[in-house]
Amino acid sequence: MKAGLVLFRVTGAVLGLQLVLGGLLTFGFISPEAHIVVGFILFFLAIATMVAWLTSKPPFRLMQRLTVAIVVLLLLQIILGFATLNSGNQAIAFLHFMTALAIFGATISGTLIAMRQGNHPPRSEVPSTT
Ligand code: HEM
Question: What phi and psi values does residue 42 have, to the nearest 5 degrees?
C-alpha cells in the first residue's frame, strides 16, 4: 500500500521534529508557536495516513487500528498541550509527555510493520509467475 507507506514515513519525520520542538519549548529555548503549528500539521498528516490505510485494498486490519489510535492520541495530545499552556499545570504537562511517548511508540511500530509489509506483500498482491 504505497501511499500509506510514504505517508507513515513523512508523519514519522514530522513527529521527530515535533518532539525536538517540545523539548526546546520545555527548556525555554523557543516560544510555543512553532510547536503548535507542527502539532496541527502532524494531526492532519495522521488523518491522511489513516484515510489511506482505511481505504486500502486488501484491508490491513492491524494498520487500520493503529492509524486510528494515532489520530485519537494526537487529538488528546493537542487538548493536553493547550491545557498545559493555559494552566502551567505540571501534572498535565507530564500527561502530555506520556502521550508523546505513546504516539512515538505507535508511529515507530506502524512504520516498521508498513516496511515489513512492503517487503512481503500479502499473497493477493504477489504477481503470479505461472
Ligand atoms: C498542537 C498543540 C500542542 C500544544 C499547545 C502543546 C504545548 C506544549 C507545551 C506548553 C509544552 C511545554 C510543557 C512544559 O514546559 O511544562 C509542550 C512540551 C512537549 N510537547 Fe507539546 N503541544 C502540542 C502538541 C504536541 C504534539 C502533537 C506532540 C507530539 C506528538 C507534543 C510533544 C511534546 C513533547 C515531547 C514535549 C516535551 C515534554 C513535555 O514537557 O511534555 N506536543 N507542549
Answer: -60, -40
pTM of structure: 0.90
Domain ranges of the chain: 2-120
Please give the number of the atom of ligand 1 that sits closest to the Cα of 103: 30
Q: Is the CB of 39 under 6 A from ligand 1?
A: yes
Reduce the DSSP state of residue 30 to 3 states and report it: coil
Contact (Cβ atoms closer than 8 angstroms) between residue 66 and residue 52: no
How big is the CA angle at 59 (ends 54 and 62), to the nearest 5 degrees?
Answer: 80
94/76 Cα distance (integer angstroms): 13
Torsion angle (degrees, nearest 10) of CA 6, 9, 14, 18: 150
Spell out the per-residue pLDDT of the chain, length 130, in tens.
Answer: 688 889 999 999 999 999 999 999 999 999 999 999 999 999 999 999 999 999 988 899 999 999 999 999 999 999 999 999 999 999 999 999 999 999 999 999 998 998 887 666 555 555 556 5
Cα 3 to middle of ligand 1, angstroms: 28
User: Which atom of ligand 1 sits closest to the CA of residue 40?
Assistant: 1
